Amino acid sequence: MRFTSLIVELIRARPRLVVWLVVLLQAALWLILPLLLYRSPPGDVATMLAFGREYQVGTDLGPPLAFWLADIAFRAAGNHMFGVYLLAQLCAVATFWILFLLARAIVGGQQAVLAILLTLTVTAFSSPGAEFGPLVLARPLWALLLLHSWQLIGQNRRNAWFAWSIEAGLLLLTTSAAIGLLLLIAGFAFVTVRGRRMLMSFDPLFAMLVIVVLALPWLVWLIRADMLALPSWPAVADLSGRALHWGKLLGGLLLAISGILVLVVLNSGWLNRNPEETPIIYRPPVDPLARNFVYFFAIAPALAGSLISGLFNLDGVVGGAGVALMMSGLAVIVAAGDLVHLRRQRVLRTVWALAVLAPAFAATATSLFLPWTGGTEVATSLPAREIAHFFGDSFERRANQRLRAVAGDPQLAALISLDAGRPHLLLDAAPQRTPWLTPAKFNETGGVVVWRASDTSGTPPADIAQRFPGLVPEVPRAFEWLVTGRQPLLRIGWAIVRPKGP
């Protein structure tokens, strides 16, 4: 008698239930873990919130939509990071559900579940997903664009044009990589017969009108700020180094999908001795155009994004690894054929669980054990609330008014800008990046200048002292880390710039 596990039966009978269970469990994991382990926002979230509270149409960090949404979520949660973490996980849940709808339209509901399970092992959707920003917000928008692009190209559903145009406009307001992603969609449509037939109607013209209307404020800001120029092309002598950088980016993408690769190898028929005993997940035949659609958008965003980043020496893949690798799981399922055999189910379940939970274990180990191994600083261990409260309260007691602005060390100043009064952030080393506050205005309204103190005297660094002449340092304030370990206490030097009278 053939034995079939409960999980396989659930995949066959209730595919949507399985998707909701695994997606919500992962979202709960990455909602609870930052709340327990992170005493300060991860990545550049604090700076993003400082920029978002100004509600600028555009900044040098990119289009404004993610910044606005982050500030709204932060305020709605009572100036607590819970709102931002929740927003990030809502984006993750929306991404996977939309991806499931797309996969179901191509390979059927049962194999669509397998595509989602594989995609969950991609590391780009784990801890980086807790750092809400343009790259995280772009994921559900890109998934929606792919879904409606397939409905337009493959299913000839003209009613999808309106939703597609809105999503394209919102993506332009989210990430600078949106133009390249939209060009990929247009390129795929142009090289296919059904795609060219779709483009010959008047619907694309109306869609372009909606996109322009949505993105017009951002486009106007780009023109006024003279930000439309492309980065400078590398010199011939630098091409070898750029090619090496491109190789490293591609290697990083392969490492991110290593969980998928391991699961594929373990499920291969080469290692199976009893092929007749394996359960099978069936699907109807896949449309050749759908196969090309999946392969194209599984390879083109990763290849083009890494190539552009390597050519112009950018730190990460253009568009983000989450967008580049979104279709990787579905591409593997499409390539597997109409019958997917699930061999060595216990081994597959164990490896899948380890691949999903490994980033959580790594984040926990980094926060709790890394400080004991040396003097390495864990950025999320800075006591953000204590730092912000101390300097906000100190300024209010001495100046008899709430803190209105903060400058100095960018990392510390961004954390202080999260105080309940939400003081403005001034990047005094590059004031053009914070046009809402100039150094002259800062000296007029007053504020706090902070820096990392290397001794108990609290002498400001030379560059800060030069930008703020006459600065009188206060006694440095020491703060404890989440886990002190072998690290010394965090000492912050500070000085008050008193507001000028009327």
Automatic annotation (TrEMBL):
Pfam families: PMT_2 (PF13231). Keywords: Cell membrane, Glycosyltransferase, Membrane, Transferase, Transmembrane, Transmembrane helix. One of its GO terms (cellular component) is plasma membrane. Residues 63-221 form the Glycosyltransferase RgtA/B/C/D-like domain. GO terms for molecular function: pentosyltransferase activity. It is a multi-pass membrane protein. InterPro entries: LipidA_mod_glycosyltrf_83, RgtA/B/C-like. Its main location: membrane. The keyword Glycosyltransferase applies. The chain crosses the membrane at residues 17-38, 82-100, 170-193, 205-223, 249-271, 292-312, 318-339, 351-372. GO terms for biological process: lipopolysaccharide biosynthetic process. It is found in: Cell membrane. This is Glycosyltransferase family 39 protein. The lineage of its organism: Bacteria, Pseudomonadati, Pseudomonadota, Alphaproteobacteria, Hyphomicrobiales.
